[in-house]
Design goal:
There is one protein chain. Helix 1 runs antiparallel to helix 2 (33-59). Helices cover 72% and strands 0% of the residues. The protein has 118 residues and is mainly α. The termini are far apart.
Length: 118
């Protein structure tokens, strides 16, 4: 039984490491703030959860497991809340999402400038 728990914990730790590394790469490679925020908010949170659960399996039933469980609960609430707050602050600061279209410097003088497309 100990071998099964060890194997499961290592699978979770490796999966959590993969998600955390993927989040780091996403933060470096994505083109705008909102895409980067998505990579950090979703992937990094999932990576942290998987790492903590894998560590809980490694620790067994102990005080460390209870502390790790409290960290998981804390991350469950703070990760999405912080991501949402950052996105709302960016929207309030008029930071527009990247649409893949190149901005024309003279477009501000054109009719309909400043209007959002579909």
């Amino acid at each position: 039984m100990a071998l099964v728990i060890d194997a499961a914990s290592w699978v979770l730790i490796l999966a959590g490491s993969f998600f955390s590394i993927a989040a780091g790469i996403g933060i470096l490679r994505f083109p705008d703030f909102y895409s980067r925020l998505h990579a950090a908010g979703v992937s990094d949170t999932m990576g942290a959860w998987l790492l903590m659960i894998g560590l809980m399996l490694q620790a067994g039933l102990s005080q460390a497991t209870i502390k790790l469980a409290l960290i998981v609960v804390f991350l469950f609430f703070t990760g999405p809340t912080a991501t949402h707050a950052l996105a709302r602050a960016a929207l309030a600061g008029n930071l527009r999402p990247w649409t893949g279209q190149q901005e024309d410097p003279g477009a501000a003088d054109a009719p309909g400038a400043g209007e959002r497309g579909p």
